[in-house]
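Run log // design_07
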């Protein structure tokens, strides 16, 4: 039978090292505390039951903690996770519908294709590729004021085409 003083010495000399070891494995404070506590319970029960004297306490405790951790992982893997249906928000849990996004992308691409070439070029350079007005003017060999007007008109035409096709 282990006396209270021996148990206290064992725990006080090994708890910090054991806790850090477990925390490193689970990366969760509360779970690390639970596993550390369960490790001591199992270790002390094993020591008392088998009436053994362990020289290397921390190695023994780490082995038990790994076994406890594996048991928890196996159990959670078998059971799956429990979810509170009332707490689930459909907007956050919903998976993005890629068909809607691809349909929109195709609609915008078709609208761009139906623009005049000059308008399409301005939209591609300014909005899609992110060039500045000065850079776009240089590429298109036009003045900056003309680029601003072309961009405005191109966006107006694009909006009309999309509105018409929707």
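design_07 sequence
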């Amino acid at each position: 039978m282990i006396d209270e003083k021996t148990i206290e010495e064992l725990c006080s000399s090994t708890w910090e090292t054991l806790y850090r070891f477990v925390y490193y494995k689970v990366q969760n404070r509360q779970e690390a505390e639970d596993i550390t506590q369960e490790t001591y319970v199992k270790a002390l029960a094993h020591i008392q039951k088998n009436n053994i004297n362990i020289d290397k306490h921390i190695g023994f405790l780490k082995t038990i903690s790994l076994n406890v951790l594996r048991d928890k992982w196996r159990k959670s893997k078998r059971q799956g996770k429990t979810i509170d249906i009332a707490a689930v928000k459909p907007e956050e849990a919903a998976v993005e519908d890629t068909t809607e996004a691809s349909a929109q992308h195709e609609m915008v691409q078709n609208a761009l294709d139906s623009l005049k070439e000059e308008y399409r070029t301005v939209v591609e350079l300014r909005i899609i590729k992110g060039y500045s007005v000065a850079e776009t003017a240089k590429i298109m060999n036009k003045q900056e004021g003309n680029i601003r007007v072309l961009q405005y008109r191109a966006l107006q035409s694009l909006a009309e085409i999309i509105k018409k096709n929707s």
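Residues 4-82 form a domain with the Rna Polymerase Sigma Factor; Chain: A fold (CATH 1.10.1740).
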